[in-house]
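Format notes (please read before filing issues)

Several people have asked whether sequences and structure tokens are stored in separate files. They are not. Every record keeps both together, in the order shown below: the sequence lines, then the token lines. Line labels are part of the format and must not be stripped during preprocessing.
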Amino acid sequence: MSEKQDTKKEVNKSNLSIGKFLKEQREKAGLTQQQVSEALKLRPSIIDAIEKEQWDKLPHITFAKGFIRSYAKLLKVDLSDISDAYNSISFVKADIAPPLE
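Then the structure lines:
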């Protein structure tokens, strides 16, 4: 079985969330959050929020998904392996003020 098939099987079998999966892959690669942060030029708090799936601590979903794509690419994880989890990410910022009347 190829490494790609193993990864997809691992994600599907364990039903890992995308954050936990990326954290596991980072740890398997022997990288710290700080190293990932430096490689991606993102604040460590962004990496931590992704791994903890604290989507409300990230900027707009478009940026958040871009960060996740970059993180997966750094870890050599094919997004097609985690596409179901990736595509299910959505959030509404809690700090958005209601429209003015």
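For reference, the curators noted about this record: Residues 5 and 80 are 11 Å apart (CA to CA). The chain has a mean pLDDT of 79.
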